[in-house]
Every structure is written in C-alpha cells, then in structure tokens.
Design brief:
heterodimer, A: 127 residues, mainly alpha, flat, B: 62 residues, two-stranded antiparallel sheet, 61% helix, 6% strand, globular
C-alpha cells in the first residue's frame, strides 16, 4: 500500500467519522458519535500499523515543527489580546460573565506559554 | 542548496519514488531536495550519497 492509497483511506475515514458524528448530533445520540470516532481511530491505527510505506520523514517533522511554532505564536497572541479586550470591556459593561471569559483567555495564554517553556527546556536538554 | 540528484537519478535509472523508497523518505521529500527547497539532514545526505556510490561533495553543491 503506497502513500497515495493511505491518503485516500484517510480521507474516507474522515468522511465516515464526520458523517457518523453529524448523524449522531442530529439524533442526539452521544454513544453513536463516540463509537464513530473510536471506530475511525482504530481503523486508521490498524491501517498505519499494517502498512510499511513511510508516512512521516524528517521533512514532515520539520514542517510540523514550524507549523506548531507558528500556531503557538498566533494562539497565544490571540488569547492574550482577547483576554485584554474582555477584561477591559467587563469594567465598562460590569458583567461577571465577560470578566470570567477574559480571565479564562488570559490563563489559557499563560498555560500556552508555560507548556512551550517546559517543552523547550526538555528538548534543549535532550538535544 | 543546489544538488545533482536528478542527474545521478538519471544515471542510475531511478525515479523519485524509487530513490525515496531506497532511503526511507517520501517522494515529496526527494522532490523538495531536488528543487533546493529543503536541505536534507547529514544522515539523509549520506544515505543519498551511498545510494549513488558517490561522495556527498559530488552530489550537493555548497
């Protein structure tokens, strides 16, 4: 099984999981949604395990690293900016809900930064 | 980084896919290396050189 076939299988699994979840949401059936996602994950796992074609090489690892770094920067800045907006707005609107939202976003941004610092330190020592 | 992988592939009658399978990377990686968009690691460069029975300096132009 080559790379192209695995790509097609991945797309089909995605369609299966997506449609199962959509049906589950429509019928308000949580179990069906979980079952669909679980079956999709198991199927993908077995396909990857059985197949000997390479899926993940150094170039993809490098791209994933760059994409992760980019995602980290964007999400942290967006969360920080949103928290600032909500906290400032909460003073004017005097809404505890808005203030809580601002607090959550600010802690999320801090959590992002903490995870990045810890993982950077870990990989710095490893390499 | 410029390289002569395409030339050596032609000499050894290998497609990008064949070379990729031999050294354990995807075809897209070989394509990116040939175009000079991706600089391979030292390990990968050695693998490519050994596949063609050449020195690294003969394949990659620094």
């Amino acid at each position: 099984m080559n790379h192209q076939k695995i790509k097609i299988i991945r797309i089909l699994i995605g369609i299966f999981v997506g449609s199962t979840v959509a049906i589950a949401v429509n019928r308000e059936n949580t179990f069906l949604a979980f079952a669909g996602v679980l079956i999709g994950m198991l199927f993908l796992f077995f396909v990857k395990k059985k197949n000997k074609a390479l899926l993940y090489d150094e170039r993809i690892k490098s791209i994933a690293g760059d994409a992760a770094r980019f995602t980290y920067v964007i999400t942290t800045i967006v969360f920080a900016f949103l928290s600032l907006m909500f906290l400032i707005s909460s003073k004017r609107i005097d809404s505890p809900f808005v203030e809580a939202l601002g607090t959550i976003f600010s802690y999320t941004a801090l959590f992002n930064m903490a995870i990045f610092s810890i993982s950077f330190r870990y990989f710095n020592q490893k390499y | 980084m410029k390289n002569k992988i395409k030339i050596f592939r032609a000499i050894h009658n290998l497609t990008q896919e064949d070379l990729a399978n031999k050294i354990g990377v995807t075809r897209q990686t070989i394509l990116s290396i040939e175009k000079g968009k991706y600089i391979p690691s030292l390990e990968l460069a050695f693998k490519i050189a050994r596949t063609f029975n050449e020195k690294i300096e003969n394949i990659f132009i620094y």
